[in-house]
Specification:
Lambda Exonuclease, Chain A; alpha/beta; 3-stranded mixed beta sheet; 240 residues; 5-stranded mixed beta sheet
């Protein structure tokens, strides 16, 4: 059976609290019962920041001075879209999807993948690094198979809002206010293709399981089991 897995979803396999059963349910369900949607404002800010960078580059043929140094950039890849930026691994019939925020072409002909995160770089954000590492390496995996090679570096760029009191007076006018952001880079290790291959194989094994085991002390599975027990006790026959 063919599957489509996003780079971010694949990244969940690398998290310390990964639960095979939750992954299995989420992949097989139209809507995961415990998923909290990410507020759209963060995607809007990420997209706006990318457009600001592109607009500056189009005018000046260089990145803004505040942009982190990622090397000597010759341009950025245009027209990235999920309809073309994907790859189906024939060995396990899984289509890997997901589009990075930016792919920059360097002066030496190599490429650097960048993903923007609207957040402060804190210990809590660091806890998501295993997921982000897979996500960016999955983008690199797809990029290589769609003709964008070699990939030499992966970066997360945290767009951190500047909310200190020193910015209040400068950011307000009679009709609107503005918020400043600072860009903080974090280098992500570029792994071999075998790293993504092994995760795709693991995902396939879980998805082909009749009903995989839960992670020990998984809170979501505990809640789901409680719901199922209530249904059984009430005499309902509808499965969850």
């Amino acid at each position: 059976m063919p599957y489509r897995i996003s780079a971010r979803m694949l990244g969940k396999l690398a998290m310390p609290d990964f639960c095979p059963r939750c992954f299995w349910i989420e992949m097989r369900s139209d809507k995961f019962p415990f998923a909290l949607p990410m507020p759209g404002i963060f995607s809007s800010i990420d997209a706006y920041g990318k457009n600001v960078v592109h607009s500056f580059f189009d005018r000046n043929e260089s990145l803004p001075s505040w942009f982190p140094n990622i090397g000597r950039v010759a341009g950025y890849v245009r027209g990235l879209h999920h309809s073309t930026f994907n790859f189906t691994d024939g060995s396990n019939a899984i289509t890997l999807t997901g589009v990075p925020d930016d792919i920059f072409e360097m002066e030496d002909g190599s490429y650097v993948i960048v993903d923007y995160k609207t957040a402060r770089l804190t210990e809590r954000q660091d806890a998501l690094l295993p997921l982000y590492e897979v996500q960016l390496n999955a983008y690199a995996y797809v990029a290589r198979h769609t003709g964008l090679a070699p990939i030499t570096s992966l970066f997360l760029i945290y767009m951190e809002p500047q909310t200190g009191a020193e910015t209040w007076e400068q950011s307000a006018s009679g009709h609107h206010f503005s918020m400043r952001f600072s860009a903080t880079p974090k280098h992500v290790e570029l792994r071999s293709e075998g790293y993504i291959d092994s995760l795709l194989n693991e995902a396939r094994e879980i998805l082909e399981s009749p009903y995989p085991n839960s992670r020990i002390r998984c809170q979501n599975c505990t809640i789901l089991q409680s719901f199922m027990d209530i249904v059984r006790k009430s005499g309902e026959s509808k499965p969850f």
